[in-house]
Amino acid sequence: MTANRSVSITDALNEAPLSRFHTRAVVTAGMGFFTDAYDLFIVGTASTLIAARWHLSASATGLINSTSLIAAFLGALAFGRIADIVGRKRIYGLEATLMAVGALASAFAPNLLWLIVFRFIMGIGVGGDYPVSAVLMSEYANRRNRGRLVGLVFSMQALGTVAGYVAGLALLSTGMSNDLVWRLLLGLGAVPAAAVIYLRRRMPESPRFLERVKGHPDQAASSLATYSDGDVVAVGDPLAGLGKISFGAFLRNRRYLLTLIGTAGTWFVFDYAYYGNAVSAPLIVKSVLGAGNHPLTQVLAFNLIVFTVAAVPGYYLAVAFMDRIGRRRLQILGFVCMALAFGLIGVIPGITAAVAPFLVLFGISFFFAEFGPNTTTFVLSAESFPTSVRATAQGISAGVAKLGAFIGVFLFPIIQNSLGTARALELSAGFSLVGALLTLLIPETAQRSLEDISGEDSFVVAEAERIIAQANLWTSEPPNDDN
User: What is the largest CA-CA distance in the chain?
Assistant: First the structure.
């Protein structure tokens, strides 16, 4: 658009029509999530091959699958806070570098200990990608299409997961040794990570962050005009930087704290259910196929079919309808339907021995995971907090979520071995119902500006009024006769 120069940066971003710079931002942020998904989910296939070659126990296999998730917990917390202090741009390439280095080094791991170390390094980068990518996209997005744009970033997870299954099938079909296959599978994660590093070096700092946190309105306006190829031209706010909220004040604010419990809590229970099932999907499907020597290619093919048919449409339907249905409503719907699907698997006698009915219900759970909390938890936590603590809050939410994922991935094989697939999925149903209840703590964010959702403009006004009052008090003081 040809913008009026009297328009503020915030209003220009909120009302800007969809343009090429939105597409560039989606691709830049989304490629990180393609990499995240590939790295996090391919390990379920790789660990099956590793366990057979290194003769690992179920707990050791679970540790391989879950190490990157506990590292992601730490990475999300650390990078989220740093992004609010020094800026989103400064660390945007660093976490991608950690992903590339960790993935490549994992391919050369000589034993279990070193594999865990390298997966941990990679996981730190994955965790850091969550708050920075989500927040940058939400801060560049317009009000009307923000759910679609941030959701598109997250939906790259679908492509990364499919790429992992396809890579596994392709490499296993070549006839090369299983040792070489798992090393190639893990090492290939460095390829998209390298592309992410290149793309992110070209992306400027968030204009909202520059203006509202750093107090550089002119730099923010110039950066926005350059990145949008002149489509969005605005002026900086003279009150820029006055509305910053300290981390301590954020934690003492009852409204923000309840919202944080909602965003972190819903994401935690979802990731327990989702990652435990998704990463362990080869084990689940193998148990349903029954006794016998089922080739891993057959298991992967079943997983690919279920995910492609059921999960992938869920991602993109969520993107298409999120701004119309509303985030909260969609999240509650997804949680309830997941609980029903998992619950039916648990209570219907013999269903885990019937391949077709099981895969239908398992596929339904995947669909409503994507057409619901897997997408909405990511979006809601990136929208609900003030600019000066937005990445911190998103990092806490994503970090707590990855702690849930770690618990789910580590415990699922153990629970499955002890109690069976049906009982393990019954537990996932219970977590899903808890998620639906916790969603009630989060405000609806659809069609609202980030500033309206967080109420941060009230802090700007209050601080400006305080400064004006102090200035008036100073000018109204009687002169000092001694001077």
Answer: 100
Answer yes or no: pTM beyond 0.70. yes
- Asked whether the beta carbons of 267 and 400 are under 8 A apart, the reply is yes
Extract the tokens encoding 212: 């509202």
Q: How far is CA 472 from the centre of its chain?
A: 47
Give start and end residues of each alpha helix (H) in 141-189: 146-172, 178-187
* Cα 90 from Cα 359, distance rounded (Å): 44
Residue 242 DSSP class: T
Place of tokens 């998992």: 342
| Residue 209 near residue 387, CB atoms below 8 Å | yes
Q: 54: how many CB neighbours lie within 10 A of its CB?
A: 15
Q: Which domains does the chain carry?
A: 9-442 (1.20.1250.20)
Question: In this predicted model, what pLDDT tens digit does every residue of 86-123 receive, in sequence order?
Answer: 999 888 889 999 999 999 999 999 999 999 999 999 99
Helix (H, G, I), strand (E, B) or coil at 253: coil
Q: What is the pLDDT of residues 400-446, one digit of tens each?
A: 999 998 888 777 777 777 877 778 778 889 999 999 999 999 999 99
Residue 237 tokens read as 């706010």
